[in-house]
Amino acid sequence: MEIREAVIVDVVRTAFGKRGGALAGWHPADLLGFTLRALVERTGVDPERLDDVVTGCVTQSGEQGCNVGRNAVVAGGLPMTVPATSVDRQCGSSQQAMHFVAASVMSGMYDLAIACGVESMSRAPMASNARGGTGPFSPAYLEAIDGQLWAQFRVAQELADRWEITREEMDAFAVQSHQRAAEATASGHFAGEILPVPVKDADGALTGATLSSDEGIRPDVSLEKVAALAPAQSWEPETAPDITAGNASQMTDGASAMLVADRATAEHLGLPIRARLLHFSVAAEDAVLVLSAPNPATRKLYQRTGMTTADFDAVECNEAFAAIALMWAREFKPEPEQLNPRGGAIAIGHPLGASGVRMTATLLNHLEATGGRYGLQTMCEGGGQANCTVIERLA
Questions:
Q1: In terms of residue numbers, what domain contains 71?
Q2: In this predicted model, what pLDDT tens digit does every residue of 374-392 receive, in sequence order?
Q3: Pair 97, 356: CB distance under 8 Å
Q4: Quick one: which of 306, 336, 313, 301 has its CA closest to 393?
């Protein structure tokens, strides 16, 4: 059977709001529904033709429980006949949604589908679905990891130490992230991917204001300000002395969505074809070092495809912590302008379930703006996993 091409018709995201900020008044299902509706309107696709909506979300409880993807389809006014499901591969959830949708299109099971993601870290705080005792970690799991249930700050420090990444390097990388994201905002580069979002108050009523750019970007950031920040885990500073709120990602609210189609179907319907989803990998490593797997995921993809870092015009490695992107750079040695050229999660924010598709939006827009052809993205994921994706610009 011939493998079909899975092409990106369009990809969008909301402007991202700080935790407790401009998007805190939005129920996450409504925020994703707003995004899905906007994507359908932008592309002009008949929503009745959608085969599925696959949604990434990490904290699937409370307002994000009971299949938030399906709830968003209904809340967004899409036809009731559009099915949806929700997936959790931790921070890579919407990147995994992209892989699932692309594989289904390539196999012939789907013709048109949406990969998307949402996270309201204001209303469904990180790990709020894992409270009480050791939460989801069973006695057998804890025995398998020798009881080493480390916080992410400690893991970031451990990886920084192993890869000999200094506090000064991490702080400088963080400043660069804000500077690049601020420039992309000021130049209008992000306008093509961002959906301005009406602001709601705590009761869900519209205030008349609109969030049209990412709320967490700090144009006035300086190395001096970042260097002055205390360790993020102030109650246990000895485990992560170099990891601070300044060189880590921000807790954020946001949603993102991508329309994926079989190429022949897109051509038949007259839909735009911006890129194709070309290669994928997923890898797992030490469950104690929960952030380390972008490197083995990239190695796996390079081994399968024969590609190298030099083949890519841009690379997105999620800035969960500066240490992770710098760890990736230590091994794969990108040129400085290759890696996160428009900034990353340290500045833009990291609404967990939405970040994978957001990264593709930023990556594709950068390739289009610069005439680049190939882009790579990867991110660390809880449990010691990572996804890796290659896209090829076609338009």
A1: 6-125+250-269
A2: 999 999 999 999 999 999 9
A3: yes
A4: 313
Catalytic residue among 91, 116, 317, 388: 91
The tally of CA atoms less than 13 A away on the side-chain side of residue 230 is: 6
Quote the number of domains for the chain: 1
Task: Give the pLDDT confidence score for residue 135 in this predicted structure.
Answer: 82
70, 39 in Cβ contact below 8 A?
no
pLDDT at 133: 64
Tell me what pLDDT residue 234 has: 56
Q: Residue 220 has which token pair?
A: 């006035």
| Count of other CB atoms within 10 angstroms of residue 163 | 18
Q: Give the pLDDT confidence score for residue 131 in this predicted structure.
A: 65
314-317/374-381 β-pairing: parallel
Q: How far is CA 376 from the centre of its chain?
A: 13
Kindly state whether residue 42 falls inside one of the protein's structural domains.
yes
Mapped onto helix, strand or coil, the DSSP state of residue 184 is helix
DSSP per-residue codes, 145-173: TTT----HHHHHHHHHHHTT--HHHHHHH
pLDDT of residue 205: 97
Based on the residue annotation, tell me whether 380 is a catalytic residue of this protein.
yes
The per-residue pLDDT for 129 is 72
Q: Over the range 46-84, which residues count as b (16 or more CB within 10 Å of their CB) and which as e?
A: ebeebbbbbbbbbbbeebbeebbbbbbbebbebeeebeb
In a domain, 51, yes or no: yes
Which segments in the chain show pLDDT lower than 50? none
What is the predicted pLDDT for the residue at 127? Answer: 75
The catalytically annotated residue of 57, 350, 366, 388 is 350
Query: Residue 239: its pLDDT value, please?
Result: 87
91 is catalytic: yes
136 domain-assigned:
no
Q: What angle do CA 328, 92, 185 make, to 5 degrees?
A: 75
For residue 35, which of 64, 67, 77, 66 has the smallest C-alpha distance?
77
Q: Is 116 a catalytic residue?
A: no
Residue 95 placed within a domain: yes
CATH code of the domain covering residue 96: 3.40.47.10
Catalytic residue among 57, 116, 317, 380: 380
